[in-house]
Design goal:
13 helices, mainly alpha, two-stranded antiparallel ribbon
């Protein structure tokens, strides 16, 4: 049941060694791709401006000096631009900040400078394969890794132990939850993670529409024996028993 709920909702709970539970809203490939596009646009504009300025300055500095400075500018913007921003307090590049995203460790803690270096330097691998005859990355490897991992981690994230999350999540409109009902004991013995899932359903039911509640409850038909509104009522009754009657 826990796996089912995790697939429906990207809000993932992580239990730390101290017994504290941290919930992270994992960002998928689409918002991350949009953030990357914004960053690349910003980098491109900066590099064009710097190149023009240095090219003009080359009249006095000499073309060899100007071309060397241009190459250094391209190097730092390509490799160190994201590291500089992600290793800071915000943990996000301008593109990620505009999309409301942030890079953190898998525990939810801010990433270190070393982790920022690893995840961004491995972007070269994530960018493979290149478009034939052009040095333009397709991000094929990175996208495949994102879709294959539970937390949408690309290869750089897996190596650095990082995830990309939503920094601020807009509050969902509250919908009245089903009214209190008589407690109902589960017909089978539940594992601890299943107990947590049933209780979490009751606690968060007020944030979902009736259709959303029914959609999630239908994945627990083996437990409830019902579907739709009847299944929702059955889960709510079992959660009531688990929390207050046992």
């Amino acid at each position: 049941m826990e796996d089912t709920v995790s697939r429906i909702d990207t809000l993932q709970a992580i239990e730390l060694a101290e017994g504290v539970e941290v919930r992270l809203r994992i960002a998928g490939p689409l918002p991350r791709g949009m953030a990357l596009g914004i960053d690349m646009l910003i980098q491109g504009v900066i590099l064009v401006v710097v190149t023009i300025v240095l090219a003009i300055s080359g009249i006095g500095l000499g073309w060899n000096v100007a071309s060397g400075l241009i190459m250094l500018a391209w190097f730092f913007m390509s490799w160190w631009f994201p590291v500089f921003f992600e290793a800071g307090k915000r943990g996000a590049t301008p593109g990620k900040r505009s999309m409301g995203l942030r890079v953190v460790q898998t525990s939810g803690a801010p990433i270190t400078f070393g982790q920022a270096v690893v995840r961004n330097f491995l972007r070269v691998v994530d960018g493979m394969p290149m478009i034939p005859w052009l040095p333009i990355p397709t991000m094929g490897f990175g996208l495949a890794a994102c879709l294959a991992t539970k937390r949408f981690q690309r290869l750089g994230d897996l190596a650095a132990g990082t995830v990309v999350i939503y920094d601020k999540v807009a509050a969902e409109p509250a919908v009245p939850a089903p009214p209190p009902m008589d407690a109902a004991r589960p017909l089978v013995v539940l594992r601890p993670e299943e107990v947590q899932a049933v209780v979490a359903f009751r606690e968060r039911a007020g944030l979902w529409s009736e259709g959303r509640r029914a959609e999630i409850a239908d994945h627990a038909r083996e437990l409830t024996g019902d579907h739709g509104a009847a299944g929702v009522s059955r889960i709510m009754a079992m959660a009531h028993w688990l929390q207050e009657k046992r």
